[in-house]
Phosphatidylglycerol--prolipoprotein diacylglyceryl transferase
Amino acid sequence: MLTYPQINPIAVELGPVAIHWYGLMYVVGFLAAWGLGRWRARRPDSPLDARQVDDLVFFSALGVILGGKLGYHLFYNFGGWTADPLALLRLWEPGMSFHGGLIGVAVALVLYARRLGVGLLRLSDFAAPLVPIGLGAGRLGNFINGELWGRPSDVPWAMVYPPLGPVPRHPSQLYELALEGVALFAVVWWFSARPRAAGAVTGLFLAGYGAARFLVEFFRMPDAHLGFLALGWVTMGQLLSLPMIALGAALLWWAYRRPPQSRSA
């Protein structure tokens, strides 16, 4: 059994200004996406040049923040949001949803693809391998914040988080860091290392994330105000991940069922 190390969630304080580790994790994610994207832009099959990668990361960052905040209120805090609609504008307050952020990024990709005249799947295949590092950094931020804890457990690496009492718990944030960040990055980056049928990389990312999130939810506490939503064990995170798995699998199937001459469209 381990004890949570009580990490200060504030990295730097400069007078009234406090910079939180969680916010810095977003910066790490965006910088990683920018650096990896510029590196990928050097490939001969890249749909973007280095300058266009800068814009892609900027618009995607807006999608992550706005979509993540809107998704949190729609999926996890709808009653509170309807009672206080202006909560959506208070971006500095806690509460972000990955699935909402994903929708925000999808909207940004659609608009940017139209602006560039690039096929949407080619653009999303380019962007998908850039995402997992940011996901992993975000889960590390959750761990530092002492939030999204796992269910009680007696495994040797279970952690006691004092604010929740003496019961050891799964460090589910670190499970998500390992699966959604490290493992998903390794698989998607490897898969995208050579040209694939249009939509295949995007499909693998969606199915891979959905499967990883669905699995980890078995070890993570459901949101206290929602609890289990179906069958006595299904959580909101699992319900939102099922469409990702289905869409990802369908994209992979479709990508390789198409005639070879049309797969790069």
